[in-house]
Amino acid sequence: MEIPFRKGLYETGNGIYAYLQPDGGWGWSNAGLISDGGESLLVDTLFDASLTREMLKTMADAAGVGADDIGVIVNTHANGDHTHGNGCCQHAEVIASKASALEMSELPASQLAAIMEQARMMGPAGQYLVDIFGSFDFTDVEEKLPTQTFTGEHRVKVGNKIVDLIEVGPAHTAGDVLVHVPEDSTIFTGDILFIEGTPIMWAGPVANWIAACDKIIDLKADTIVPGHGPITDVPGVRRLQDYLHYIDQEARKRYDAGLSVRDAAHDIRLGDFSSWGDSERIAVNVSTLYREYGGDTKPPDVVQLFGLMAELKQ
Ligand SMILES: [Zn+2]
User: Fold this and answer.
1) Partner of 84 at 20 to 30 A CA spacing, among 126, 132, 138, 148?
2) What's the CA-to-centroid distance between 90 and ligand 1, angstroms?
3) Which residues have CB atoms below 5 A from the ion given as ligand 1?
């Protein structure tokens, strides 16, 4: 079954739904719903409360599952575009990996709202932030930190359905998790997959991310729902791996030659990958790879990286 990449809720089969948000660029994330025997699990919430409420209304209308019927939310990782609506489901337990829970507590939405408040005075980096995040309202969020955490693998049941949570991070972020429903051959990958958009590696190491893609392929799911972009298949997963291999090779050459992150980010030719959205994310990817090569465990200077992405975008 071919599912179009249009905004809305799509049943992929047997009580499993994907909620898609084109164009899949910055902040436009996907979510999922798993229902069985009167129980429901939501895979991720959206970037602000009003977007999340709109999604929950759609789920109530189309699937008969209202916000109060959601018993469990699983956050695939800590980024706000997957967590800022957690509080919209009053009764839900919120499950995340331990590493994600820690990351969530470190960056509350109020901090993002404060940055956006200043963005117009921050020059090109600020203008870039307004361009990519201006349509979201970080003053209107319903945050709720995880109520349950795990490391490694964790199995939950939704009605009679088994749902396996598989920690594959650190990769995109510190605590990425895959959500696998074996009996329905469906996997929600969170931001381990960006489809038709450029993956952004905040955490790394890159080998972990490549291995996470292998894990997805090994699970042989018929339905693969990425964190951003259209529903995909194994070739789609392999293309993302190809990108990671390619930028690793290219960044390594420039690191060995002594180029700065900035020069390397400008210099790397993305070829076919340049048609993917938000290609300027190469800046963050090079920075993360460089820190990996140098054994540098300090967190990146995020404001500086947004400045470099703004520069590359021009
Ligand atoms: Zn995301």
Assistant:
1) 126
2) 23
3) 29, 79, 81, 191, 227
